[in-house]
Predict the 3D structure of the following.
Amino acid sequence: MTPPTVRVLRGDITHQAVDAIVNAASPQMRGGGGVDGAIHRVAGPGLRRENIERFPRGLPVGGAGWTTAHELPASWVIHAVGPVYGRGTRSQLVEAYANSLRVADELGAETVAFPLISAGVYGWPRVDAIQAGFDGIAASATSVREVLFVTPTEEATQDVEAALRRATPLRILQSVRALHERGFENARLRSGVSPSGMYWRGSVWLGDRELVGYTTGNGSDVAGMDVTAATTPDALADHLLALHPDLTPEHDPAYTQWYRELLALVEERYELPIAFADYFDATDGWEIGWGSGVRVPHPPS
């Protein structure tokens, strides 16, 4: 199954003539502020009446359900309930996206427009909300052809664009963890910045064999596979193992522990690790985001 294309558009979600738009709904499903209120205003009172009929008890956090779109240009509205920051969990936010796409598949929708669920009045940090959206899309195994993030401000649009650019290298880093979990604890990462400073470079090695080499100058192409925000780390790990079927797993618990700690910082900050670059002093270890000052020790030999 081909993962959907993921794009971002600055605009008004109520104006999108797609198969389905996603409403960042409250658990009560009766309208509210932010995106929820805007969608109800444009759709008209019939949307609230249908919500009451279809969802008399609302929806749980992380859940999703559909109604017709009434006066909106889309065909359907998928109502997804995201968590409130500090009261809910990130897994619930990921589920809100995955469940929205499950509902879209039930409807036969091919194009779906999302707001940044929970990133408005619910207070979820926007950069993490974007990544949670990507994780939900990747986890959904959806048949949807295109996912569109509709953002109301230039700043939010730029944040999604930046996240899309980081999506491929982040999936490469996460695929190393997936290899470790399958017993290939001898999979190691080398990463840094090109001499021009324009591109991040990363490669995955087992012993003296390079499984894959990548530079952000290649876009989403990783060893012949299109790796995007909608790709799971396991899918990329499958691809690398298929390219090298004679690999032998080995144990290296010291390295895997170091790598877990490295990746936890990467996923917390959404910055890429730097071990080498021109004019970069690696004496004190790897840096998470060039110039950030956040360092981790060198990996165990």
Remarks:
- The helical segments are 34-43, 45-54, 90-107, 126-139, 154-181, 233-243, 253-269.
- The two ends are 40 Å apart (CA to CA).
